[in-house]
Amino acid sequence: MNDRSPFVEQVLDPRYSPEFYRRLETYFGGGPEQSTSPDQRHYLSWWRDHAGGRVEFFRQHLIPALEKTRPIDGLKILDFGCGTGCSSVALAERGATVVGVDPDRTSLRVAEQRVIDLRHENRITLRQIQYLTRRDEKLPLPDASFDLATMFGVLEHAYPHEWRHCVRELTRLIKPGGEVFLCDTPNRMFPYDHHTTKLWFVGWMPQRFARAYALGRGRIDKSADFQRRGGVGVSRRAIDAVFPSSEWTLVHEKSAQEVLWELKWAASQTPAFLSARPLAAAGLVIGTMWPIIQASRLLNMRQSAWTASHVLTYRKRG
Asked: pTM for this one?
């Protein structure tokens, strides 16, 4: 990375090398000055995220949630969709042996340098894979070879028909009694899309209309694959459907208190005329959503079905 970059000061870990920054800049297409896309406005936050902020987020929030069912020290973990390696590093720091897989070669090059710079070569192995688009496709890994699989922000980037293929492979690879930890996947039922478009209610629209709305608001490129970018997120009902109760048991999910906190957070994302009165904004969002959440109990829906992003642990039946 060149010396003129304004982003060096945002890096949380000084161990990263110039080569890491160079690869990260390549991953983001050469820097914000090289791009005229709607994504340019998000470049700085993405940079902070992948240069260190995301690893710290995993350390402080997601690893503790993961370890609510068991400690991960000594486990062999498949980091399914490892991206730039933030999650793999956070897992290795807790004593796990990690195999990180991802279909994107550019992000894996960042991950490889991250692993070298943070000196986790003895704990992390990285492999490029293909998207699992067909039933007969398998990963080049042996049956029942992992204690745990993690999916940090993965399902929203796959097509619905690919979700079952992914979970079918995880069922093959996880030992009986092992777990799948799924998190950081935006929820289609939450009223605000914090992941892809930063717009209200897009998840409640058919995807065709959601994409047209996002294009009209200048939030995505016309050439972008809306689903691969994260689209409209994934509902809890859709996730439960690909983890059938005959094979998997849900052992952890967010509490009602966490969902309420997220609704309060969503209030801070309201338009300026509401944000000027934060208490009124919070009352509007919570007053609208909380009765819906409570009424959903009548349909046997868990309150965590309304979370902003899913945090779920499924255990494979023996």
From this structure: 0.84
